[in-house]
Amino acid sequence: MAVAIRLRQEGSKGHLFYRVVAADQRYKRDGRFIEVLGTYDPQKKGENNANLDLAKVNEWISKGAQPTETVRSLIKKASKAAAK
């Protein structure tokens, strides 16, 4: 089973937000998932629009999960914010 760390779209039309989830690569974008790792709200302004549990994310990456490009950039931003 190949696990991907990706965004799961939620909310309503015009008010979308995303959950960062660990899911089997074969599942649909908004389908089943294994674990919620955080949230991302593109509607919020500033750098505080992503809320990730970096410990869980790092645990999944150590198990072999592959983050998508978008999630990879969110992880990088969250890591910089946590280092401050």
From TrEMBL:
One of its GO terms (molecular function) is structural constituent of ribosome. The keyword Ribonucleoprotein applies. One of its GO terms (cellular component) is small ribosomal subunit. The keyword Disulfide bond does not apply. GO terms for biological process: translation. Keywords: Ribonucleoprotein, Ribosomal protein. It holds the Pfam family Ribosomal_S16. InterPro entries: Ribosomal_bS16, Ribosomal_bS16_dom_sf. Belongs to the bacterial ribosomal protein bS16 family. This is Small ribosomal subunit protein bS16. The lineage of its organism: Bacteria, Pseudomonadati, Verrucomicrobiota, Verrucomicrobiia, Verrucomicrobiales. The gene is rpsP.
